[in-house]
Amino acid sequence: MNNFATVIIIFGCVLVWAYADRELIQYLRSSGNEITITNGGDVLLYGNKKWESNRVIDGSIGDAADCSCCAALHRPAWISIDFHKPHSFSQIVVYGRNDASITQSQNLQITIDDGFVTFQQSIDVNTTGVFVLNASESHQIVQSINISSYSNGVSETIMTVCEVKVFQTVNKTTQSSTYGECYANNALNNITFSTLGEICKACAVTDGSQIPWWELDLGDAHLLREFRILGRTDQINSGQSTDLNIYISNKTLKGLIDNSYDNLHCEDTPCTVHFDQPRVARFITVNHPSNYPVITLCEVYIDAGYCPHNKFGDKCSRTCHCTQTCDDLTGYCNTCSPGWMSATCEQACPNGKYGINCLMNCSKQCRKPGVCLNSNGSCMSGCTEGYNYTASPLCDKACDHNHYGSNCNLTCNCNGNDDCNKSTGVCPGQCEKGWKGNSCSEKCDQQRFGQNCSQRCYCADNVMCDHVNGACPGVCQPGWTGKSCSKECEKGLYGQNCSSECHCQDGVDCDHVLGNCSDKLCAPGWLSFDCSQACEYGIYGMNCTGTCHCQHGDQCDHVHGNCSDHQCAAGWTSYDCSQACASGYYGENCSMDCHCDQCHNVNGSCALYSTLCQRGFRLTGEFCTRKYFLSALSGKTY
Questions:
Q1: Of residues 253 and 342, more confidently modeled
Q2: CATH assignment of 172-306?
Q3: Does domain 34-168 fall into CATH 1.10.10.60?
Q4: How many CA atoms lie within 13 A of 236 on its CB side?
Q5: How far apart are CA 366 and CA 360, in angstroms?
Q6: Which of 33, 145, 251, 311 makes an SS bond possible with 81, Cβ 3.0 to 4.6 Å?
Q7: What whole-number distance in Å separates Cα of residue 81 and Cα of residue 59?
Q8: pLDDT tens for residues 23-38?
Q9: Domain ranges, ordered by start, for the chain
Q10: Residue 224: left if φ>0, alpha if ψ -120 to 50, beta else—which one?
Q11: Higher model confidence: residue 117 or residue 13?
Q12: Closest residue by Cα to residue 168 from 267, 70, 282, 272
């Protein structure tokens, strides 16, 4: 049987096999897959042409001097070929110069990267200008190829590479032995078994000469959802297609029984094996557990598996974080979602990084320094003091003017346009009116207001005034006035609403709250501790010691003693009726003569004051009365 490689064509979910040799690079280019070529070192300009690095995959091989198909760079130099996802290979061939300048293609190094492990080997093209690297059991996957030059101890100054070819052997069927022309690849020819005479047209059959097995190499790992095995349907030797063990693996097993790989069992034919979650495998191996000497497989159908969005790998157990979707098998993404990195976008940004390609730095103002949400940089533990998480979860916005602390929830009230420390709230100078404390965040104490809380307000019932301007919500305490109740009553006033007048002797100030006089002396007409009580009825003057003498017992002015109708009681005179009638007079308005030197000023009685009456009067009882004489001439009495 000839060696062959296989191209996989997917119809719906079924993998169908078509056989052809394949060179990977040109196959990928023809099918529209991206291959990226990069280089380091200055590109050679020779013959008015640049020997660009992308020539190494142009598919052209010829005379380096005039084919315009080689890449050349000044050493030290390197050329990288990136396939963006892993592929199996059987052989890598590097074509260099085979002319007099062959040294330009020697003293090189090739590095193979499979996405996880790198492998390096020195390159020296042979006399035909070719270097061949064959796959080994440990190195048969390639994701990128890097060819670089040595610089130390090498006299050659130019590195020339003309072409790189990567060969694959895919979908190779093999079996332990072959009965007649019942080749291993018959199990994939889409011809089903019908009669015994056509068995070798439809089926792969071993000849029984050794322990039987059949194996399919898919060339690359694939996601498998289901496969169906059809064997002999006649009753003759039907045991050749029943009681089969099926192994799926990523390495060839052939006749080896290795229970470390998934072992599936088919008791009858046809047999269907279905995976709840797609499995990754490159090799499918079938054998007889009971050492039955022959295996007959007439058709093997394989259904491709697919993973849900952003899932990949064996059992779709791995998660990629791509802007669109990732490769179901490898997880390769063109672009990672913000917060993720690596070829499969399954590695979160390292601590301190976030965003697209993890290029952004977490804010130093995160409460846990350098720890933020990898996708958008949000500080998951909040911001440090002085930064507003609500305004920006990135913790890049300091607190606004007059705010500070955790999430800027605290308010400082610095004087004027001064602003406080955003962490501690401490003001650089004084506080705004009505505030106190280091951060100027405490209101003035009760009954205090204004700058430095230095002013006091006097609101009734000790109600708290406005801490800024001192305004009282109601009336002031006795003795105080003004909007903030911080002004004492004007001179001469005291008490509630400053509505009471002071009555201190000689105009001395009284207490603006209680009204009591500083020398404890009340003005005439007033009594009590605050001199607010007028003299009682009938008295007046200093200490209310004066007695009123008004006609008909009317009340006199309690201060001055003057009567309201200016009429004094009998026996009294002057503006305040405080003077008794002059000696010798009495009665109303002191208009009556008592006819003695001194008499009672009210009733004119002389007996208590003088026993001598004026001439022509005599003392009759208490009063001096006129004497009467009988005229001798007229006989009248006088």
A1: 342
A2: 2.60.120.260
A3: no
A4: 6
A5: 14
A6: 145
A7: 14
A8: 899 989 988 888 999 9
A9: 34-168, 172-306
A10: beta
A11: 117
A12: 282
